[in-house]
Amino acid sequence: MRMYLVVLLLSSTFCYTQAWPTQEVRSALVCEGGKQKIRCTHQKIQIISAVYGRTDRSVCQWGLDWTVAWLWNVNCRAANTLAIVKNECETLSECELHANNAEYGDPCFGTKKYLTVKYRCIGRITPDDTKRARVCENHKMSLECPERRNIDIVWANFGRLKGAHICGDGFFGIFSWNQACQHQVASKAIAKQYCQDKEHCLLDATVAKFGDACWGTKKYLEVRYRCCPKKGGCD
Asked: What are phi and psi of 136, to 5 degrees?
């Protein structure tokens, strides 16, 4: 009987550990001009801190002479980095970090910068959680939900709210494209027309479908959506 209780206790402990992984703090470092994906398998990303700039002379200075690095500003931080990274990554299971001035601004001209992000993986991803899909102009986007669940469009924009590192074919046009190209109300209405309350749908990211909110700017379609039960919907 005593042996049975010990085995049962060990089994319960093992199951508990498997169900709730340790929420250790993880770090990501991206040198200016680079990109890196962060991922939480079956869990959601929670951003703890994010800094774009330079606070250490020795980080991301490979291949450069120390005399150049000595001139860098090491008290350099972009103002809105945390808010931008949270908007890009928070509550998703994975996202891609880009370290460039188009995303965060240039807080110290002439200094080579880098992005540092601290995050943890929390909770469990469920169909009710908001997902993000993004596709470049003149391409198609497919949204799909599991069986017995329907698409609920939360937010959509066909335009451009980021620099040319998103759907930009490199950095061409970075100084001329409108990065405040918002078409959210109309975009959401159009996305709902084709996708709302369906298990799956296909969206064409074209001017013909969504209109042209900023002529001359290469656009992309971004949609945030949930998969809600057919009966009862999401809370």
From this structure: -75, 155
Q: Using a cut of 0.70, tell me whether the model's pTM lies above it.
A: yes
- Domain 131-229, what architecture? Sandwich (2.60)
- Would you say residue 228 has pLDDT above 90? yes
> Where does the chain have alpha helices with state H?
2-19, 66-69, 81-89, 101-104, 184-195, 207-210
- 143 burial level (CB within 10 Å; 0-12, 13-18, 19+): buried
Q: What is the mean pLDDT of residues 24-29?
A: 96
Domain positions in the chain are: 25-122, 131-229
CATH class of 25-122: mainly beta
- 179 close to 160: Cβ distance less than 8 angstroms: yes
The C-alpha atoms of residue 220 and residue 100 are separated, in whole angstroms, by: 19
Residues 121, 44: Cα–Cα separation, whole Å: 5
Which whole-number Å values give the CA distances from 3 to 10, 174, 219, in the listed order? 11, 69, 66
Q: How far is residue 28's CA from residue 32's CA, in Å, rounded to a whole number?
A: 13
Residue type, 163: G
Contact 136, 160 (CB under 8 A): no
